[in-house]
Amino acid sequence: MKAEELRYDENGLIPAIIQDIENNEVLMMAYMDKTAFELTLKTGRAHYWSRSRKKYWMKGESSGHTQEVKEIYFDCDKDTLLIKIKQNVAACHNGYRSCFYRKMDAKTGEVAIICKKIFDEKKVYE
């Protein structure tokens, strides 16, 4: 599979769902473009395109919480990636292992934090 065979959206992006290789926990969702995908393949470390900062970033470049790519899947339409990684420390910039640390009750709409914070993001991202 080559990067150009994937189906990118009108902005040249493809969503990437990031999952822990050991326990299948969904850690985050981010976007890649062709260059970020190729950097990921070349280095074995997850690289993304930041829509807000308009730049490439390697997960962990600031925090040291890198993602070692172990397996890459894509869906039947070739427009979504599922990347299984070895997460070093945490994926979430808010101090949690997973970005999905909040759960909404499907009936009441009440929200609860369901994970323990594992690092102080203010100290890591000063």
TrEMBL record:
Subunit and interaction comment: Homodimer.
Predominant location category: cytoplasm
Pathway stated in the Swiss-Prot or TrEMBL entry: Amino-acid biosynthesis; L-histidine biosynthesis; L-histidine from 5-phospho-alpha-D-ribose 1-diphosphate: step 3/9; Amino-acid biosynthesis; L-histidine biosynthesis; L-histidine from 5-phospho-alpha-D-ribose 1-diphosphate: step 2/9
Gene this protein is translated from: hisI
Annotated protein name in UniProt: Phosphoribosyl-AMP cyclohydrolase
Family: Belongs to the PRA-CH family.
Residue span, Phosphoribosyl-AMP cyclohydrolase domain: 28-101
Cofactor field: Mg(2+); Zn(2+)
Binding-site list for Mg(2+): 75, 77, 79
UniProt subcellular location: Cytoplasm
Organism: Candidatus Schekmanbacteria bacterium RIFCSPLOWO2_12_FULL_38_15
PANTHER family per record: HISTIDINE BIOSYNTHESIS BIFUNCTIONAL PROTEIN, HISTIDINE BIOSYNTHESIS BIFUNCTIONAL PROTEIN HIS7
GO biological-process terms attached to the record: L-histidine biosynthetic process
GO cellular component: cytoplasm
NCBIfam families recorded: PRK00051.1
Role played: Catalyzes the hydrolysis of the adenine ring of phosphoribosyl-AMP.
Residues involved in Zn(2+) binding: 76, 92, 99
Keywords, alphabetical: Amino-acid biosynthesis, Cytoplasm, Histidine biosynthesis, Hydrolase, Magnesium, Metal-binding, Zinc
Coiled-coil annotated residue ranges, if any: none
Recorded catalytic activity of this chain's protein: 1-(5-phospho-beta-D-ribosyl)-ATP + H2O = 1-(5-phospho-beta-D-ribosyl)-5'-AMP + diphosphate + H(+); 1-(5-phospho-beta-D-ribosyl)-5'-AMP + H2O = 1-(5-phospho-beta-D-ribosyl)-5-[(5-phospho-beta-D-ribosylamino)methylideneamino]imidazole-4-carboxamide
GO MF entry, a single one: zinc ion binding
Gene3D superfamilies in the cross-refs: 4.10.80.70, Phosphoribosyl-AMP cyclohydrolase
Cofactor descriptive note: Binds 1 Mg(2+) ion per subunit.
Chain ranges passing through the membrane: none
Documented EC number(s): 3.5.4.19
Top-rank EC class of the record's enzyme: hydrolase
